[in-house]
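Example 3.2
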Amino acid sequence: MKTVNYKTKNHFSVLSGLPLQRFQRLTNCPMKPVYTQEQFAADLTGEQTGKASQPLLPVPEDVWMIQPGDVVYSQSSQTASPASLESGGCVISQNYLILRPESVLDPGYLVYLLNEDSGIRKQLVSRLQGSQLQRVTVKDLENLQLPSLPKMEVQKAIGQVYLSQKRLTFLREKSIQNREKLVIASLKGIGNEQ
């Protein structure tokens, strides 16, 4: 199976997702978990998800999979997420692109740049294609102009703080939702005692 693999001057390579429906009828291939939007969101927030809920698909051995340290770019949400250990070994659909940073670029810092840097966001928005479903292409990421990279320890610090903040925001929102559910459940019991 031939995959598209581009090398950029930005210290990462880009791998395009696959049309997974092509593999549904294969019979003599190992079953591999499919990367989902839920996994993407969990990777960005640090939430733990079980692979038990992920769909499985028969995939040939020569198809590449997500590796920990990869950055996944969602074409539907136009955001990036770091690939967790749980995501390792998953195959992705054409709704995602994989960015494999070289050793001079921290994955967390790359996620921060793609999601938050105004210069990067402007470049990506100006390149969106499609009238109904707008997508960033492999070529768009290939031609992306990253700012000059700070030292690795600075990149790591920025990436860790950014991802920790994403996790904290997620936990706060989840706590608010849980409190609301508790209050509503408590209210349902009031006035019904007779």
